[in-house]
Amino acid sequence: MIFSHVLVVDSKYKHEVLLDGEPILFEILDTCPKGPHDVPAPDLVQWADGLFLVYSITDRESFNYVRRVKQALQPDIPIALVGNKADMVHLRQVSQDEGEILAKDFECSFAEVAAAEQVDQVAEAFHELCRDVLALRRKAKQSLLDRMLGSKSIRVYSRVKSDSALPKD
Ligand SMILES: Nc1nc2c(ncn2[C@@H]2O[C@H](COP(=O)(O)OP(=O)(O)OP(=O)(O)O)[C@@H](O)[C@H]2O)c(=O)[nH]1
Question: How many structural domains does the chain have?
Fold first, then answer.
């Protein structure tokens, strides 16, 4: 299975993990905005299965940037909103509440992480997004099955040997 994500530098990474017992290959595309109004091209988002919107809690402009990206791209794939540099609280410009409110607005997951110090937090954010991608796939598969089989439920009855011993009515 290929899982992809778009972040905010123009390079690709691959990383394989075992997630909930399932092997997952992450293909990570880190998009590099040239400036505050340089929004990633829509085809990048079409390539991805999930989208990471990362800002720095010490940089209000980066928070505004992810808001612009979401508005410009309107992605219909699972999103994770991530506030980085959570260790630098003394320089905080974006509160945790603001991050949570924006995530509610985006209907997506939210985490504050300190990527430079806590690799586990970053991994967990990736895993959460991956679970959302897999859940969406399962849902899409189920609704395809439902459409193919029709809305009527199908009951399966199989005659077993002891049936013949049942009294006939
Ligand atoms: N204190 C702290 N510093 C961080 C953290 N994450 C990244 N940095 C620092 O922030 C700087 C930018 O980090 P990059 O990994 O280059 O981040 P980027 O998103 O590529 O940043 P840009 O090059 O500005 O796009 C580096 O000096 C990192 O060491 C963090 O969680 N805490």
Answer: 1
**Residue 69 contacts residue 42 (beta carbons within 8 Å):** no
Probe target for ligand 1 pocket from 61, 88, 112, 118, with the most ligand atoms within 8 Å of CB:
88
Query: Can you read off the two tokens belonging to residue 130?
Result: 């991956």
Closest C-alpha residue for ligand 1 atom 26: 116
Residue 140 lies in domain: 2-165
Q: Model-level pTM?
A: 0.81
pLDDT in tens, 9-41: 356 789 899 999 999 999 998 888 888 888 888
Residue type, 46: Q
Neighbours of 131 (CB within 10 A): 15
